[in-house]
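G., before I forget:
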Amino acid sequence: MKVLRWLWAAATLAVLANGFRVAMFVVPADRDQGDLSRILYYHVPSWCGMAIFFALNLICSVVYLSVRNRNRALALKADALALTSAEMGVVYCLIGMTTGSIWGRAAWGIWWTWDARLTTTLVLWLIYVAYLLLRKFASGAEMRTLAAVLAIFGYADVPIVYMSTRWWRTQHPAPVFFGGPNSGLDPSMLPALFWNMAGWIMWGIMVVSFRYMAERRAQQVEEKAAVAALEVA
Amino acid sequence: MNELFHRHLIAAYTVTWVIHLCYLGYVALKWRQTRRTGDQ
């Protein structure tokens, strides 16, 4: 298992290094924005990572709520994965907003605007930060149940963020992917996007697996302490 | 100046790595903390 972890880490770094090489030196620059458009190869994978890990958080929260009274061991595993995937999703969301803000500064001349996509994304980030704060400052089974419910309600903002550029035409550009006719990237730019997307998703899986193992150990320590306290009583 | 090294492009890539590495540091800290308490 340890060897597999190191192999995964090495493969992740190799894919990311190649992704950087392809993004910076292989694919052509955009006709309108020039080399600035290469921000896309780190910006879009962050959103994909966010979508994947928030979806995982939702699935784990549903699993936790449905099995918590029947299968405690599975419920705790689901809860640990829910926490770790939410943390990773928050990190990706923060990176997506920050790289977007830097891009916006160069392309539009502003760091931030209360556009539909940006605002709904900020709200989404705040919801998951609130989820993590709840988990940080409360404990026990009730906290886990509350957190799972909050995660399910919080996820409702994800499709709104996705659809925001379709429903409201504000500052953010129209969707590049699945945006209908005349949307999409030039095929010559796709390799950079795919390499970076693969690399950053592999990175996310690697970090989440480490965080998950640490969280499981913390849960086991907590369980042992609870049993010891009962025995003393 | 080489346009490829557009300062906003460098800033975006740097910020991405810095945030990821900060979170990786937090995970490593948690890993060490739980291993220490788990061993006791």
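The mean pLDDT of chain A is 91. Chain A has one domain: 37-173+187-232.

More on Monday.
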